[in-house]
Amino acid sequence: MKQLLLMSSSRKGNLGYLEHADEQLNTILSDKIKRVLFIPYAGVSFSFDDYEKMVRPVYERLGYELVSVHQFDNAAEAVASADALAVGGGNTFALLTRLYENKLVELVHERVADGMPYMGWSAGTNVACPTIRTTNDMPIVQPPSFSAFNLVPFQINPHFISGKPVGHNGESREERLGEFLVMNPKESVVAIPEGTALYVQGDQARIMGEFDGMVFRQDKVETLASGGEFPLSQING
Amino acid sequence: MKQLLLMSSSRKGNLGYLEHADEQLNTILSDKIKRVLFIPYAGVSFSFDDYEKMVRPVYERLGYELVSVHQFDNAAEAVASADALAVGGGNTFALLTRLYENKLVELVHERVADGMPYMGWSAGTNVACPTIRTTNDMPIVQPPSFSAFNLVPFQINPHFISGKPVGHNGESREERLGEFLVMNPKESVVAIPEGTALYVQGDQARIMGEFDGMVFRQDKVETLASGGEFPLSQING
């Protein structure tokens, strides 16, 4: 059965790295998992070693080992035998480019369909979608395609925040998602504020965290109340 | 001789559409130009007709006719015979996708190299660069390539603003450009705040407007003082 924890962000307010996320992570982690395989490819301005050092204590605190995929000679073999996958945030375009370089896109899709638990945050949530077309990140490198892991049948917008910065003429997040839906009128976008996650188990999902999620569709915007369970098919219904 | 006016934004503070830009536009416009051809392809949440109606009065006020390329049966023929080109803001990915669909990318590069004046703002400035890798926009549609008009030998970041929104854990603009330079260490990015433009005449350039520009390189950040002339080659030197 498919199991996904798709988190908006690594941080919430002034809390430390994934400090808000213990309850969310414990929902998907279980004693069937000994070691979590970490994908650090979204990290750009710091080393994969440093990224691994930052994330390992989060999982150790919860009782799990963690090792980064860059420690293995063959990334695909490491993914093929992983107990669970954690895909960290950073730049979504760097992440997807490196996933293609390491031939992991199809493989992760298949392993998650077979039941390997998947945890992602920020960029790691963007790549869980059919494509990366609702990332907030700068396209600093061109991936071979925008197509990603396709683990849920809709787009997600992490780090959702309403409105726009004062004194600046850029678009608000709502306007950006509205533009996405003009260009892609049959699609839907689940927007999750920082600290919030979408938890998926099989065909059912729920929003976890203090805040509600939202679904943006071409003709309407709806609230996804935190804690309420719904079928995945409801989002694109 | 190449002539470019690459504006950061259509708006500055609370001023109306291109209201701040008369002096900047007059620098590149001349009595050799009767009619400006407008490219509305970055517009997503409003019609090309409406976009043309918004921009036409700006040019009429300065004494020039303006017609949008979507009024012509063949966009390439319209560009081939244009006196000058104005490329409006909106979504950079929609703009570049439609430029490719209408087979305009190579053609605009050639016509500008031959001396046709080019005016762009926001997305219209992003596509003047070698690629769109320093746009701030959401990648709502996948263009065939990130490669763009390549009218200047460096990237530009429009709508430049320092720092990050309070209470949100996204990256600051400086951090985003820093990540670009980690992935592309030999490149440079000229960052221009709203209301500011980069004016290029042949091999020389200067920043126009109230604020200074900046050049981001891997190892340092420098100010480009408003009004001071410099050779284009200095940016990547």
From TrEMBL, chains A, B:
<protein>
    <submittedName>
        <fullName>Dipeptidase PepE</fullName>
    </submittedName>
</protein>
<keyword id="KW-0645">Protease</keyword>
<keyword id="KW-0378">Hydrolase</keyword>
<dbReference type="Pfam" id="PF03575">
    <property type="entry name" value="Peptidase_S51"/>
</dbReference>
<dbReference type="InterPro" id="IPR029062">
    <property type="entry name" value="Class_I_gatase-like"/>
</dbReference>
<comment type="similarity">
    <text>Belongs to the peptidase S51 family.</text>
</comment>
<keyword id="KW-0720">Serine protease</keyword>
<dbReference type="InterPro" id="IPR005320">
    <property type="entry name" value="Peptidase_S51"/>
</dbReference>
